Amino acid sequence: MHNERRIVLSLSLFIIALFVAASIKDRSFLSLKNLLDIAVNSSYVAIAALGMFVVILSGQIDVSVGAILAVTSTVAGALSKQGLPVFVPILAALATGSALGMLNGSIVVGLGIHSIVATLGTLSIYRGLLIYFTHGGWIIGIPDSLQFLGRGSIGGFPIAVVFTLVIFLLIAWVLRYTRLGRDIYALGSNSESARLAGIRVRRVQLIPFLLNGALVGLAGVIFAGRFGTVQPNTGQGFELIVIAAVVVGGANIFGGSGASAGTVLGALLVSVMGTLLIFFSVNAFWEEAVQGGIILFSVAYYTIRQNRTVVRGITTSATSDSSRRE
Amino acid sequence: MKRVIATAKKQIAGALSNWILLCVLIASTLIVSLFVPYYLAPKNLLDATRSGGELGLIGLGMATVMLIGGIDLSVGSIFALSAIIMGIFIKLGVNAYISAVLCVVTGLLAGTANGLIISRLKIPPIIVTLATMAAYRGIAIGLSKGVSYPVPQSFYFIGQGGIFGIPTQLIMLVGVAVIVSTLLRRTTFGLSLFAIGNSEEAARYSAIRASLAKTTVYAVSGFLSAIASLVYVARVVSAKADFGTGYELDAITIAVLGGAALAGGKANVTGTVIAMLIIVLLRRGLTMGFVQTEVQSIFIGLILIISVALKGSLRSDRVARHGKNVSA
C-alpha cells in the first residue's frame, strides 16, 4: 500500500507540474472550460482503464477492448436513433459489453487459453462481425438524448466525469474492503496459492472480464454521445491507450499490485497529452511519439525505484521477479 | 524413465502439430477452391506468398522472441519507421541502395534498443514494446508529417521480381527460415535461447549470458521487420508512416498458430511458415470471394482460438493446463 501511495503522489505531482508549465506558457490553459474539456475527454478512457485495471490486477489482460468499444458505441448509437427512451440504448450497450467481456473470460478460463492470445482472437472476431453487420457504414445524427451523456452537465459538472468518479470510488471500495476485491488481488499475485487458499479461482477470474466489458460498454455510450457519430474503425488502438493508462498508473502488468487512483491519473495523463502538445506548440504529428516516451519513462522510473527498494530490503511483496512470471 | 516418456510425448505432440497445421492448410485451401474459381492456379497461390513472405519474416522474428518468453509489439512500428527512413534518404538524394542499408540498420537499432531496455532495466517486454510501438510509429509520423515518399524504379525488382516465377519474398523467407532453424537447433546460442525460455534463472546459473542473448533476439526481430519493410516498400513503390499497422497481431497469430507459447521455451520454424501460409492463402481466397478484409478477420480469429484450444487439449500434462495457463 505504501508503494502505491507514493506512485499516486508522484503521478499527481507530475501532472500538476505539467499543468503549471502549460499555464505559464498560456494562461487560458487553466480556464474552467479547458479543464472541464480535459476531464471529459479523459473520462471515457478512465472508465475503460478502470475495467482494464481490474483485469490486469487479476493477472490477465484484455486486448479486445477497442473492438468492444466499437461494438457497444455502435449499438448505443443505432438504438438511440430508433426513438427509444434513452435508458434502452444505454442498457443495451452495457449488456453487449458485459456479454463480450464474459465471452473473453469464458474462453480464457474454460479453454485455458492465455488471455493475450484469446482476446487477440476475439478482437478480430468482434470487429469483423461489426463490419459484417454494419457493412462499414457510419452512424451519424445521434439524438440529443444520448449526446447529453457525453456533453451534458449537472450544475456545471459534466455527467461523464461524475460517472467516472462514481465508478472509481466503487471499484476502489470493492477492491479494498470486500472479499471479492481481496480475492482478485490474491489471484493476481499467485493463482496457485489463491487456489490452495480456497478461492474459487475459475469463478473469480470471470468477474474482471465481465466488469471490464460492462465498463467498456459505458465508455462506448459516452464516446457515442461525446462525438455524435460512430465510425466502423472506432477504437482502433484503444486497447493500447487503456493499457498505457493502467501501466503509467503504476499497476504491475503481471497482476497482484496497483491502485485504482493511479489508473485514473494515468488515464488523465495519457489523454491530456494531445492538449498539452498544442499548448506547447508542438506539431500534433509528434503526439504518438511523446505518448510512447511517457509510458517508457514512467515504467522505467517505477522499475528502477522498485528495484532499489528491494535491494534495501524495504518493500515486502509483489516485487519478487518483475521480469517474468507464469 | 517417466521423464523420457514425457519428452517423447512432447516430441510427438510437436511433430503432430505440424501435421495438423498441414492438414488445416490443405483442407482450408481445398474448401476455398470449391467456392472461388481460379483460386488453385499456381500463379495465384504464388502471388499470395508475396505479402506472405513479408509477414512470415516478421513472424519468424516474433517466434524467436516468444521462444525466450518475450513478446514484441513494436514490429509493425519498426516496419513503418524503417520504411520512412529509407524514403527520407532517397528523397534527400542518397543512393537507393545506401538508403536500403540505412533502412535495415534502423530496424536493427530499434530492435536493439528494445532488447537493451528489456534486459538492462528489467522491464517486462510487453510494456517496453507497447511503449516503443507508440514511440517508433510516432517518430515515423513526426518525421514524415504524414507524407508518402516515392521509391526509384531500380528498386522494383526486389518487391515485384523473382526467380523462375517464384517471388523474391518466398525465396527470402525460405532462406531466413533455414538460417533461423539451423541457428536454433545446431548452435550453442540457439540452445541457450531454449534454456532462457524454459527458465531464465536456471540459464543464468548455467553461465548463459541471458541479457546479451535477449538483446540479440530483439535486435533480430527488428532486423527482420526492416527487411520485410524493405521488400514491401519495393512492392508497393512508396513509403508511408501508416505501413504495418496491426502487423504485430498478424505476427503473433502466426507465431502462436505455428507452435510458439507465450510462456516461452517453444519454437517451431516449420510450423510458423505453414501457419503463415494458412493465414495468407485463406485471406487471398476470401478476398477473391469478395469478403471484406475486416470480415475476413472473423475467420482468422476463430482459427487462432480453435487451434490453440485443440493444441491445449492434446497436451498430456494436466498440471500445466490447470495451474499455469489460467494465470498470466
Read across the widest sheet of chain B, the strand sequence of neighbours is: 1-4
Order of helices and strands of chain B: HHHHHEHEEHHHHEHHHH
Q: How far from one another are the termini of chain A?
A: 24 Å
Oligomer: heterodimer
**What's the main sheet of chain B like?**
2 strands, antiparallel
Strand content of chain A: under 5%
What percent of the residues of chain B sit in helical stretches (DSSP H or I)?
A: over 70%
Q: What general form of chain A does the structure show?
A: globular
The chain-level mean pLDDT of chain B equals: 85
Mean pLDDT of chain A: 86
Taking all Cα atoms into account, the compactness measure Rg of chain B is 20 Å
In short:
The complex is a heterodimer of chains A (326) and B (328). Chain A has 326 residues and is mainly α.
Structural features, described:
The complex is a heterodimer of chains A (326) and B (328). By secondary structure, chain A is an all-alpha fold. Chain A has 13 helices and 2 strands, in the order H-H-H-H-H-H-E-E-H-H-H-H-H-H-H. Chain A has one domain: ABC transporter involved in vitamin B12 uptake, BtuC (Orthogonal Bundle). In chain A, strand 1 and strand 2 form a beta hairpin. Chain A starts with a helix and ends in a 14-residue tail after the last helix. Chain B has a single domain, classed as ABC transporter involved in vitamin B12 uptake, BtuC (Orthogonal Bundle). Helix content of chain B is 77%, strand content 2%. Chain B is built from 14 helices and 4 strands. In chain B, strand 2 and strand 3 form a beta hairpin. In chain B, helix 3 packs antiparallel against helix 4. The C terminus of chain B is likely disordered. Classes of the chains: A mainly alpha (326), B mainly alpha (328). At the A-B interface, helix 4, helix 5, helix 10, helix 11 and helix 13 of A face helix 5, helix 11, helix 13 and helix 14 of B.
